[in-house]
Design a protein that fits this description.
The chain is of the alpha/beta class and about 250 residues long. It has 11 helices and 8 strands. Bound molecules: 1,3-dihydroxyacetonephosphate.
């Protein structure tokens, strides 16, 4: 049985005043690691968050990292720095990074490798746009996003990673993929990896993201290839997020 993981991606939300009670509520409730729980605040709050989590059952993740390890890259943050302030995970290739900040699959693959190199667990985000789904291109898009990573780092690299399937049309829209739609793509991802390495595919955690709420989490998480969730909006409300963790 793969242990389920629920990760909260705060995106560019929060403040020191708002983060404190949110993290306190999560830490007070999530005391076992039976379900993995990760929070991903904005970079500037990671250090505070690490202190507030004080090495308990809730893990810390970043939302992005630089593909380079060190040097003259103004404004960037390296994997080693994230590790240094207490992160154990980082997202890579979130659809907002891909679409709003022009990140190519090649760059995402380099970020994935940088995360692994720094000892972080990358959560590789993949997913299709609505027009791509409507054109029947979902599998081709997701396969290409995966292949950029496996070609650079090898399929073995996925043994130390998570994948998050986030259909872009479901992110922040309130329009969730049905459990069956999620399962279909998750199963496709697992089969695709299994062609290269069946053992890694069987152990790979594939999270679903896109308008997951307390009210729909249980049905989505019940699907055989859905191993948890990557939660945006609902991760900013303690009650809602904790109900999603409980559903896992
Ligand atoms: P929402 O849960 O707000 O749809 O966001 C999903 C997401 O992008 C998480 O990374």
């Amino acid at each position: 049985m793969r242990r389920k993981i629920v990760a909260g991606n705060w995106k560019m939300h929060g403040s020191r005043a708002a983060n404190t009670p949110l993290i306190e509520a999560i830490v007070a409730t999530v005391t076992s690691e039976r379900v993995g729980c990760v929070i991903c605040p904005p970079h500037v709050y990671l250090h505070d968050a690490a202190r507030a989590l004080h090495g308990g059952a809730v893990a810390l993740g970043a939302q992005d990292l630089c593909a380079e390890a060190v040097g003259a890259f103004t404004g960037e943050v390296s994997g080693a720095m994230l590790k240094d302030v207490g992160c154990s995970y980082t997202l890579v290739g979130h659809s907002e990074r891909r679409s709003l900040f022009g990140e190519s699959s090649a760059l995402v693959a380099r970020k994935f490798a940088a995360a692994l190199g720094a000892g972080l667990i990358p959560i590789l985000c993949v997913g299709e746009q609505l027009s791509e789904r409507e054109a029947g291109r979902t599998e081709g898009i997701v396969a290409a996003q995966l292949e950029a990573v496996t070609q650079l780092s090898g399929v073995q690299a996925l043994a130390g990673a998570l994948i998050a399937y986030e259909p872009v049309w479901a992110i922040g829209t309130g329009r969730t993929a049905t459990p069956e739609q999620a399962q279909e793509v998750h199963a496709f991802i697992r089969q695709r990896i299994a062609v290269e390495d069946a053992k890694i595919a069987a152990g790979l955690r594939i999270l679903y993201g896109g308008s997951v709420k307390a009210g729909n989490a249980q049905d989505i998480f019940a699907m055989p290839d859905v191993d948890g969730g990557l939660i945006g909006g609902a991760s900013l409300k303690a009650d809602e997020f904790l109900a999603i963790v409980a559903a896992a």
